[in-house]
Specification:
Helix content: 25-40%
Mean pLDDT: 94
Number of domains: 1
CATH architecture: 3-Layer(aba) Sandwich
Distance between the termini: 36 Å
Structural class: alpha/beta
Radius of gyration: 20 Å
Order of helices and strands: HHEHEHEEHEEHEHHH
CATH superfamily: NAD(P)-binding Rossmann-like Domain
Strand order of the largest sheet: 3-2-1-4-5-7-6
Number of helices: 9
């Protein structure tokens, strides 16, 4: 029977679709880059997605963030993301954390639950802490470097952090990881040299912050406001999301198995079992919601 993932199944095979349905992925930061990561995961049929972000959607997000429209300005990003995921795949288990990830609150999220973590955080302290914790737990992580102040979406690369260049954020992360003796980190980065934003105080968020009800990280407290566009952050997010999908099915050994191969594949059978469990969990969630609704 056809469904919203049929075209993906034609490309990857049914065991890969089962692998994705039985996987749980966390995305830290669902803005310009992270929103497109979530879009890839949801449209690829990942069965459980956790989203972590404390921001509300601002008018200045509309130029680049897939969840940002004039009708969603002022809403919490995790709430809008949750609804979008469910519009794509109602069976997806969405867990949202309305918080800004920091070392001080990191213990509220159990990273060991995830099959993959995507780092789309834009602050060094939080990125380093998340990377370190994933490293210690052996949880796969892909980290997105800088996507602001750039114009060339074809300049993105996927590599270990040691091979990055022309990226100020990656340079800082490299140094920090060396001091922590973390030898490897898969990341998405651009080899384009960053541009200097054109100084325009009359429209700068640094002087005229319009973010809705900001409790943290007010734009007026920032030293500089990054410039952005619709296509560079989006490209970084699509690349990162695609890497997660490919890594999940390849590690599960379910990539492009034919129906004949799947019959004798232990990996395919394991993936089918996990996918079935995910469906049963979805049915139970629906049952619990109906009970709650009936009980007022």
């Amino acid at each position: 029977m056809q469904n919203q993932f049929s075209r993906t199944q034609l490309l990857l095979g049914k065991p890969a679709i089962d692998t994705l349905a039985g996987s749980r992925v966390a995305v830290f930061g669902v803005g310009g880059v992270g929103g497109y990561v979530v879009e890839v995961l949801a449209r690829s049929g990942v069965g459980a997605i956790d989203v972590i972000d404390d921001d509300r959607i601002c008018l200045t997000n509309v130029n680049r963030q897939i969840i940002a429209t004039l009708s969603t300005v002022g809403q919490y990003k995790v709430d809008v993301v949750e609804q979008r995921i469910r519009d794509i795949n109602p069976r997806c288990a969405v867990t949202k954390y309305q918080q800004f990830y920091l070392p001080e609150n990191a213990d509220t999220i159990d990273l060991s639950l995830f099959d993959y973590v995507v780092d789309c955080i834009d602050t060094v302290t939080a990125k380093i802490d998340l990377i370190r914790r994933c490293h210690e737990l052996g949880v796969p992580i892909i980290s997105c470097m800088g996507a602001a102040n750039k114009m060339d979406p074809t300049a993105f690369r996927i590599s270990d952090i040691s091979q990055t260049r022309m990226d100020p954020l990656a340079k800082v992360i490299r140094r920090k990881l060396r001091t922590l003796r973390i030898p490897k980190l898969k990341c998405v980065w651009s080899e384009e040299e960053p541009l200097e934003p054109i100084d325009q105080p009359e429209i700068s968020c640094r002087f005229h912050c319009i973010c809705p009800d900001k409790d943290m990280r007010k734009c007026t407290d920032r030293r500089t406001i990054p410039a952005s566009n619709a296509f560079v952050p989006a490209t970084a997010g699509l690349i990162a999301g695609g890497e997660v999908v490919k890594d999940l099915v390849r590690r599960a050994e379910t990539y492009r198995l034919s129906p004949e191969e799947a019959e004798d594949s232990e990996a395919a059978q394991m993936a089918a079992t996990k996918a079935k469990a995910a469906i049963e969990a979805y049915k139970e969630r629906v049952r619990q919601r109906k009970l709650a609704s009936a009980n007022g």
